[in-house]
Write a structure and sequence with these properties.
By secondary structure, the chain is mainly alpha-helical. The protein has helices at residues 14-36, 45-68; strands spanning 4-7, 10-13. The protein contains 2 helices and 2 strands, in the order ββαα.
Amino acid sequence: MKYQIDLFGVLLPSLMLWLVITYAIGALLRPLLERAGVYRFVWHRALFDLALYVCLLGGVVYVSSGLLS
């Protein structure tokens, strides 16, 4: 896995890219979960969203490590 990404001469940590990708996936997933009624069964929505983000981030990093190696 590359630990740095060259973006127009600026070196960025690869985790920064994965964080942005995960945020986009989460932003698309949250309205779907709301329409499906999942949030009716959730005690604390902000904690659920944070846990969902962390799980999605783990999945994105895992998938990316398999693609780049």
